[in-house]
Every structure is written in C-alpha cells, then in structure tokens.
C-alpha cells in the first residue's frame, strides 16, 4: 500500500468563504479561519491517559478529554492538542467551540476493528446507507448540531487505515455502509485546515446539512484504486469539495422529501488526480437540488473525467447555475461528461417520472493536453439539459469524434475542437442571458452571498 500511496496524490488546496466579515484573500479578518484562534483553554490528549504508540486504543481518552473541555464551551472554547505520536482510536464526537489541533508528526489512526466505529442512523436525505440498507458506521471524527468547530494544526495527519474497510467492501463482508473519515452534520462555522487526510474508509470529508464550512490547505491521499474515497463531499443545504470534489444533495425520494439543496458553494484552486473518477462531480445524488456552484482554478491530471454531472430519471431535483472556469486538464479521458442515466437507486420506491432539471451550466477557459474525448454529453430524452454554455475551450484531443451529445441544448464560443451540433449556436447578445454568468468576479461576488465556500490558496 505504501507503494501505491506515493502516486495517489489528491492534493486539495482550498479556502473558505462565509457571510461573516472576512476578507477574501488572507483570513486576517476572519476569526473562524485563523488557525491561531485564541482558545483560552487547552489540554493535551496524553493528560487523559492516551498513549501514542500506535497500539493502545485511545477512544476513551479522546471522549474524556472532549467531555472535560465541554465545560469551557461558554468560556471561549477550548483546544485539544494532539502531540507527535500515533494515536489509535475509534470514533469520537466533537463539541461546539472546540479546536482539535494536530501537531507536526501527530497521527490520529482509525481503529481496524469495525466495532470501534458504531452504527448510526442513515441520513434522512438518503433513507438508508449509501452502500447497504440500514444504518452506517459513524465517521472516525464526528460532529452533530455544532457551532464553531476547527480541525487544524501543523500538517498533522488523520489516517483512517481504510485498507481493511476496502477489503471488507471487496469481499462482501460489510454489514453496514462504510464510515467517512470526518463527518459534520447540521453544523455551522466549521474550519478544516492545515491537516493531511489519509486512507479514508469511504468519503474523506463529508459536511452534511451544514453552513459556513471552510476547507483550506488540506492534503487528501488515498490509493488511486481505493473504492469511493472521494475527497470532499459537501452535502450541505447552504454551503460548503473516487471524485476529488463531489457535490451532492440527497438520493431520490428521500432527497426530495428532505429537500435540502446544496447551494452557494465556492471552490477555488484544487489540484489533484483520480484515476477512475472525476476532478469535480455534481451528483449523482442531487435530489434536493444543487445550485450556484462557482469553481475556478482547477488542475486535474491522470483522471478518467475532468468535469462531471451525473443524474438519472428518478432523482428529481435540479442542477442549475453552475459556473466552472479556468481549468487545466492533462491526460484525461473525457474532459466534460454529463450522464443522464447514471442509475443507482436507494430502493424500488423511487418515482421513475421524477426527472431532474439540468440547466444553465457554464464551462469556460479550459485548456487540455492529451485528452481522449472533449465531451460526452448525454441528457435525458424528453428532458433536455438546457442552456449549456461552453466558451474558450481548447483541448488537444486524440479521438476522431471528440464530441458526442444527445438531448442537450446550448451555445458555444471559441471551442476547439468545434462543439457538437446542439451547442453550435454562438453565444450572442440575444441569448446572452440564457447562459449563467457571474455578475461580478468570483471573489467579490461572494461577499454578497451567504455561507459560501471559497477553496483557495
Ligand atoms: C495554516 O498554517 C499556516 C502556517 O502555520 C498559517 O499561517 C495559516 O494561518 C493556517 N491556516 C489556517 C486556515 O489554519
Ligand atoms: C440542528 O442543530 C440545532 C442546534 O444546534 C438544533 O436546534 C436542530 O434541531 C438540529 N436539527 C437537526 C435536524 O438535527
Ligand atoms: C441534534 O439535534 C436533533 C434535533 O434536535 C436531536 O434529535 C439530536 O439528538 C441532536 N444530536 C446531538 C448529538 O446533539
Ligand atoms: C499550508 O500548510 C502547510 C503545512 O501545514 C504550511 O506550511 C503552509 O504555510 C500552509 N499554507 C497556507 C496558505 O496556509
Ligand atoms: C503535509 O504532509 C503530507 C504528508 O504527510 C505531505 O504530502 C504534504 O506535502 C504536506 N503538506 C504541506 C503543505 O507541507
Ligand atoms: C459482520 O457481521 C458478522 C456477523 O456478526 C461479523 O462476524 C463480521 O465481523 C461483521 N463484519 C464487519 C465488517 O463488521
Ligand atoms: C500522471 O501519470 C504519469 C504516468 O503514470 C506520471 O508520470 C505523472 O507524474 C502523473 N502526473 C501527475 C501530475 O501526477
Ligand atoms: C481562455 O482561457 C485561458 C485559460 O485556459 C485564459 O488564459 C485566457 O485568458 C482565456 N481567453 C479569454 C479571451 O478569456
Ligand atoms: C497535441 O499534442 C501533441 C503532443 O504533445 C502534439 O504533437 C500535437 O501537435 C498537439 N495537437 C494540437 C492540435 O495541439
Ligand atoms: C455516442 O455515445 C453513445 C452513448 O454512449 C453511443 O452509443 C454512440 O455510439 C456514440 N456515438 C458516436 C458517434 O460516437
């Protein structure tokens, strides 16, 4: 595994944006993204009996330390310091007004015993576990109903030791859906920065039903062949990155009923590779709706797909007002992929007539080297994807038929190789407003938005 780790690199360099009075660049005005945040109280995990030998199970020590620190929640909060060492633990819960600080050479190691990852209820917007019916294993680091929680440090590591989980997955020995590495649910003012995440059993960072989430300057690594180790899966109703960044919002009838859209998501400067999946994906779970995703300055290499939107009849919901620009692709199979028939349903109770609405998707300023296919854009018969606008796209493509489009409608300008027939019409003054544009530059426009993310350097 060590061997396969080296080339895996999913490096995400991300930063936050919220409606708080933060400056866009540099977080000097933004208390919540300042890793030197002044928690007046601090304890070290070893004070609670933890042993950093990589063998001793420290779940109780983490739980006790955090229980103790709860008494400082109304006194400016507290910091749990994790020093150098290998700190083996099962799942533990964070609290509000807490900073979990991982020093240089500190490694929090996930237990390789499944019972150390308790089984919790499925997400209401999924109705069941993503992989198996019923509950799901709780993430290693979990939080619910929290305000003001920070996971940061001096590039310490949170290592899920997911290898055992990937093996259980592959050999059919799971009883419940695999755990994420970090999941924060129904929480706000979340900052995750300056840490490295390794070998998540399943998705790596999963904010769900959250607002004001910032993920900045993190490195996420997992073997290229590890199953479903998505980097960041923001699944949050007002905010929030297999896929390096996957934006989701609920699954079929459960997602429709729960109705929490993922919106105002800003992604800035993400560098990475993923062999079998995409750099940025929206869906396939999108039944609660996804809108206003602004992604800029992306560099994806050695990936099967660059930019991807996945959905299916039965999902309902919408994906609209998406703006992706300034993208560099190197050695990528399909630069832009829309899949209207992704399939995968939670159960047989979904409504096959619930058709998703996919509209106002702008992709511009893309350059690609060694691309097999420019676009495989498949909408849904009777449910065309509308106002797909491509501009300033230059791809060095090896396929003789670089575009393959069906059931889509839109416009293009300066696309090489020339866009497919449904997008041939030039973006002109009359239908300029059909396309989704940013009224202001990304960074300044985000000032007016509530609870957005900015992923930035
Ligand atoms: C990350 O670490 C650097 C260097 O210590 C520090 O300047 C910066 O403020 C930290 N950023 C965040 C968001 O924690
Ligand atoms: C979310 O958290 C808030 C307080 O933190 C709580 O009042 C609310 O009931 C929670 N909602 C859910 C669905 O957990
Ligand atoms: C979060 O809030 C919900 C709804 O109020 C409640 O049912 C649940 O027990 C809370 N969970 C935690 C861990 O506080
Ligand atoms: C990113 O993290 C590294 C390691 O913790 C740190 O040296 C660097 O200053 C950080 N960069 C930023 C922009 O925060
Ligand atoms: C943080 O550590 C990881 C591995 O431990 C390394 O790959 C990464 O480059 C480091 N990040 C920074 C910014 O130093
Ligand atoms: C699944 O359940 C079986 C029977 O209880 C148990 O032996 C096995 O260890 C469980 N698998 C996991 C991954 O927990
Ligand atoms: C892409 O893969 C090639 C061949 O495996 C490798 O040499 C190159 O370093 C990879 N590129 C990146 C950016 O990792
Ligand atoms: C086209 O996109 C490239 C980046 O791929 C950018 O450098 C260039 O400025 C863009 N051209 C125009 C006219 O916007
Ligand atoms: C595509 O890349 C190859 C190899 O780098 C180069 O020889 C070729 O001229 C490029 N084609 C175009 C259309 O830029
Ligand atoms: C276009 O894609 C469809 C579906 O993948 C495939 O059946 C068809 O053969 C492709 N057409 C061309 C011309 O490549």
Automatic annotation (TrEMBL):
What top-level branch of life does the organism fall under? Eukaryota
Gene3D superfamilies reported in the protein's UniProt record: Single-stranded right-handed beta-helix, Pectin lyase-like
Annotated signal sequence is: 1-24
Q: Its principal location?
A: secreted
Report the subcellular localization. Answer: Secreted, Cell wall
Q: Which UniProt keywords are given for this protein, alphabetically ordered?
A: Cell wall, Glycosidase, Hydrolase, Secreted, Signal
Q: Which Pfam family is an annotated match for this chain, by its short name? A: Glyco_hydro_28
One GO molecular function term of this record is: polygalacturonase activity
**GO biological process: any one?**
carbohydrate metabolic process
Query: Of which family is this protein a member?
Result: Belongs to the glycosyl hydrolase 28 family.
Put simply, this protein is called Putative polygalacturonase
The taxonomic lineage of its organism, from the top, reads: Eukaryota, Viridiplantae, Streptophyta, Embryophyta, Tracheophyta
């Amino acid at each position: 595994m060590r061997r396969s780790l080296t080339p895996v690199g999913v490096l995400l360099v991300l930063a936050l944006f919220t409606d708080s009075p933060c400056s866009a660049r540099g977080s000097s005005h933004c208390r919540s993204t300042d890793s030197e945040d002044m928690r007046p109280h601090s304890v070290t995990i070893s004070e609670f009996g933890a042993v950093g030998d990589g063998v001793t199970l420290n779940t109780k020590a983490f739980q006790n330390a955090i229980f103790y620190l709860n008494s400082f929640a109304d006194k400016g909060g507290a910091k749990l310091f994790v020093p150098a060492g290998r700190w083996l633990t099962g799942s533990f819960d964070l609290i509000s007004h807490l900073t979990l600080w991982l020093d240089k050479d500190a490694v929090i190691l996930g237990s390789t015993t499944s019972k150390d990852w308790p089984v919790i209820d499925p997400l209401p917007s999924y109705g069941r576990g993503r992989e198996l019916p019923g509950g799901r294993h709780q993430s290693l680091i979990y939080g619910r109903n929290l305000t003001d929680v920070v996971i940061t440090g001096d590039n310490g590591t949170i290592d899920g030791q997911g290898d055992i989980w990937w093996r259980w997955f592959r050999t059919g020995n799971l009883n419940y859906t695999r755990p994420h590495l970090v999941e924060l649910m129904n929480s706000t003012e979340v900052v995750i920065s300056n840490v490295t995440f390794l070998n998540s059993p399943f998705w790596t960072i999963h904010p769900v039903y959250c607002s004001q989430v910032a993920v900045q300057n993190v490195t996420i690594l997992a073997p290229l062949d590890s199953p479903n180790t998505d980097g960041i899966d923001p699944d949050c109703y007002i905010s929030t990155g297999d896929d390096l960044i996957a934006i989701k919002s609920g699954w079929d009838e459960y997602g429709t009923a729960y109705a929490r859209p993922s919106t105002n998501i800003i992604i800035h400067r993400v560098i990475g590779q993923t062999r079998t999946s995409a750099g940025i994906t929206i869906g396939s779970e999108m039944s609660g709706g996804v809108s206003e995703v602004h992604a800029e300055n992306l560099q994806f290499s050695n990936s099967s797909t660059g930019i991807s939107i996945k959905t299916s009849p039965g999902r309902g919901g919408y994906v609209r007002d998406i703006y992706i620009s300034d993208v560099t692709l190197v050695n990528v199979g399909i630069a832009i992929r829309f899949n209207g028939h992704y399939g995968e349903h939670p159960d047989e109770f979904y409504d096959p007539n619930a058709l998703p609405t996919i509209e106002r998707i702008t992709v511009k300023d893309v350059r690609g080297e060694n691309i097999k296919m420019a676009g495989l854009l498949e909408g849904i018969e009777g449910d065309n994807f509308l106002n797909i606008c491509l501009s300033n796209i230059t791809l060095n493509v090896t396929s003789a038929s670089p575009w393959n489009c069906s059931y889509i409608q839109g416009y293009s300008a300066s696309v090489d190789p020339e866009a497919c027939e449904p997008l041939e019409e030039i973006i002109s003054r009359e239908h300029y407003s059909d396309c989704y544009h940013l009224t202001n530059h990304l960074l300044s426009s985000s000032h007016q938005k509530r609870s957005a993310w900015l992923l930035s350097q």
